[in-house]
Backbone:
């Protein structure tokens, strides 16, 4: 039997029941859905309908819905604010602590503490501890709901404990073994557990070598580690190697997805391609800062060409090839940039090899430049019957491509060494730098060899 | 205790033992490592050292290593060829069928069947079945090593079965329930299983609504589904709804990563940013096809400007703003393109709303165009003291940005409806189209209003 999803007809049926205040039928339809589809249904409702929903669902049921709107974080704030504060606080008590912390982190300090004060003390404590970790660290994405056992437990007593904790823990497939000071001393999987006799001591079957990450580790590093080693969960330890939380694979998928979107956005010079704006004005507001910066960089390029106005006045034909040369410089630079950024992102761009990479890119630039230079020179010669013009454009392409390729690789690598996110050196910026370089080369050569062109 | 990784000193120690043929010490060092680190160590070895390794490791141990070189698929072929064929075949028998199929899919048909014939018949059958599924479908990434049970099993008999199958199955955390015709009829998690009494019937505790995917579903869709619903595994059914395999979360992470890289590569006009070439010639070979195409597109732009040579001869200053206008058109088009491509990738760009998106983008383009147009007109007026030139460039920017934004969103959306991968409409192509549009607008207006410019 295929589960129901929020198909348009089903959706409309639910909305009808909701508005008729037919609580029973609405609830039976609603709970047919997977929490993710419940969240999708919820997000598409208009505000009056959402207000009806808050009357019908318990805070615990609403918590389940709220945990599944991870992709629309920008809506957390306004949704919380339309709920009754007591309802919202109760709901966050029922959420996994890491998800609740995620929701609260979108609010102001004052708002956060006002919610925490009306919450159950225990829940408030775990949430506020998570809020203390810096953004983008392992601490900020970990959960504190995990199963920890002692090495002197038996398989039987562990299974008993699991049966009790299973409903609350985020994962029960890895069990972490701690000593009296809460130091992480071992790990075993549920798979290991079930294949052993009931009387076996945990100490005898646990793995003593445990892969773990520190609370302060970068979330992207943690994500790469989980991906490479195929873990379903990783323990997080503090600076004394005490177990403080775990990170599960679903959080990691979100991190990898965010980081990929982020790199992609920066290459395209948009703040965040994933936060789609249904509104033209707010979309324009997000894109304008980039465009204005690029506009002024473009004015510099115009100024640069202005320096060669005399040359241009003599041979106006030169203007024809400006977009071609600048465009090729931009394209080749973006290619080199993309390769370098991805290398760094996948952790392959180690510092020791920077010069080797640059050298290799210089070689690549020289080869592509030579080929493209010859092609363009021949084309112009055939098309315009002008030998020296073809030679000039060909040589410009050759030198431009070489320089642009090196610049494309060099800038992100250097930024990485200076600990700036290299993806910031986004496509358009490299393109603008390469525009200027290419124009300098092209007009410089044209001015030098003016006699041959006339 | 932190596990060992392939740090340089540790690595060197292993290589020394390997070359001394100190089998015992080498093996004890090697098996300290996680299979992923074993694979990393293996991949960095020179060929003579790898040949030594094949003598020391059993096919089963080597299978474990080979399953972890997923990120370097282009090396499968040459590595297999340097092994003794019988050793390679034995190794693939021990690998998970989906991983073995992945390795073999890099070879020619003849090679594949020669390996399959010397393999154990059972293993060869599962592998060749997987090889029959089309690339990029659920069938091609699923595994056939899963645990299936009957509804009339009890919790106890299921646990007994699990203990037996645990070492071979790729995951035991989801158990799939099938009827006599192998139709998928239910699912339960190991978590559900352990909280119930030993005598409970599976039929009474299984979930009858099972999320599943079809063998022919696109792998990207499957990945999105697993991400959205937070599944650790998804069952794959054939057209008669018979269970044929499962897809685990680790495979899905690889798919998401590949797709993100792919979109990123296309925006940058590189074939594949992730397959890093240490060699300049092969890197150049990969980038040249794109560059040559872009070169000829650039020649069209040159030809277009050539149509306005007379205008240029009269007012050479016009050339100054070519890169600015063309650049802005490129940037704004790439922004709109990136937003549209990501929307489609995340499954949000449904066909019904295409016109709404285009309309919204037109609004965004008009706003950004107006703002940038005013800024540039004022700047030129202050800088050059030329009122009409400023007005001309400002108006060109206004209309160019509007058109370019619409084109940036329109092209990928239309391609998506025509079932072409919209990411192919990569940044540089949109940029070239927008270059031409912008030049037509700019020089067209300049020619029309020539009297005011002189």
Residues:
């Amino acid at each position: 039997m295929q589960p129901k999803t929020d198909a348009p007809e089903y959706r409309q049926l639910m909305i009808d029941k909701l508005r008729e205040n037919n609580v029973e039928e609405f609830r039976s339809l609603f709970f047919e859905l997977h929490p993710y589809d419940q969240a999708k249904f919820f997000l598409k409702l208009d505000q009056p309908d959402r207000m009806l929903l808050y009357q019908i669902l318990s805070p615990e049921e609403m918590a389940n819905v709220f945990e599944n709107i991870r992709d629309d974080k920008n809506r957390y704030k306004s949704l919380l604010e339309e709920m009754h504060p007591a309802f919202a606080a109760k709901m966050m008590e029922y959420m996994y602590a890491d998800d609740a912390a995620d929701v609260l982190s979108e609010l102001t300090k004052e708002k956060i503490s006002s919610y925490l004060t009306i919450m159950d003390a225990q829940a408030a404590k775990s949430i506020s501890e998570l809020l203390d970790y810096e953004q983008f660290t392992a601490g900020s994405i970990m959960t504190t709901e995990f199963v920890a056992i002692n090495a002197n437990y038996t398989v039987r007593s562990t299974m008993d404990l699991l049966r009790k904790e299973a409903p609350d823990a985020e994962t029960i497939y890895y069990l972490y073994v701690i000593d009296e000071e809460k130091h992480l001393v071992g790990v075993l999987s549920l798979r290991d557990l079930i294949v052993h006799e009931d009387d076996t001591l945990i100490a005898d079957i646990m793995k003593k070598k445990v892969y773990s990450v520190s609370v302060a580790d970068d979330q992207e590093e943690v994500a790469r580690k989980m991906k490479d080693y195929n873990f379903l969960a990783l323990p997080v330890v503090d600076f004394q190697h005490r177990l403080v939380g775990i990170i599960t694979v679903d959080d990691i998928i979100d991190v990898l997805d965010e980081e990929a979107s982020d790199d992609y956005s920066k290459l395209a010079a948009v703040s965040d391609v994933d936060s789609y704006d249904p509104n033209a004005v707010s979309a324009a507001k997000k894109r304008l800062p980039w465009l204005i910066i690029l506009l002024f960089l473009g004015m510099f390029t115009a100024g640069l060409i202005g320096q060669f106005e005399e040359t241009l006045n003599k041979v106006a034909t030169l203007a024809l090839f400006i977009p071609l040369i600048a465009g090729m410089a931009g394209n080749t630079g973006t290619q080199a940039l993309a390769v370098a950024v991805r290398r760094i992102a996948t952790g392959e761009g180690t510092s020791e090899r920077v010069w080797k990479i640059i050298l290799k890119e210089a070689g690549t630039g020289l080869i592509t430049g030579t080929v493209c230079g010859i092609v363009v020179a021949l084309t112009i010669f055939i098309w315009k019957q002008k030998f020296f013009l073809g030679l000039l454009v060909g040589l410009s392409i050759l030198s431009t491509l070489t320089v642009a390729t090196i610049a494309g690789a060099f800038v992100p690598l250097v930024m990485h060494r200076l600990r700036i996110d290299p993806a910031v050196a986004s496509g358009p910026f490299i393109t603008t730098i390469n525009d200027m370089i290419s124009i300098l080369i092209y007009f410089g050569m044209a001015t030098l060899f003016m006699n041959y062109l006339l």
About this structure: Chain B touches chain A through 119 residues (CB under 8 Å). The first helix of chain B runs from residue 8 to 19.
